[in-house]
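Hello Y.,

Per our agreement to keep a running log of every chain we model this quarter, I'm adding this entry. I've kept the format consistent with earlier entries: sequence first, then predicted structure.
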Amino acid sequence: RLFLLDSAALKTGEQILKHNQPDAVEILPGIAAPYFIKHIYKELLCPVIAGGLISDKNEIEKLFQKGVLAVSTSIKELW
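Predicted structure for the entry above:
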C-alpha cells in the first residue's frame, strides 16, 4: 500500500516498490492512482489497485480507463 500524500511520498513509494518488486500495489487515496500510473507505473509494471475516496460508479469507470486493475471500497453499493 502506498499513501500518496504528496510528491515526497510518491518518490519514497517509488523507491520502496523498485526495491521490493511487489505483485501489485494499492494506491491510497484511490483518486491518486491515475497520477501514479502516469508517472511511475511504466518503470514497475505491476497491477494497480485504487482504494479510498472512491464514491460512485463513474469514478470507478474512469479509474479502469486510466489503467487501474481493481478498486477497493467500503461502500457496499459499489461492490
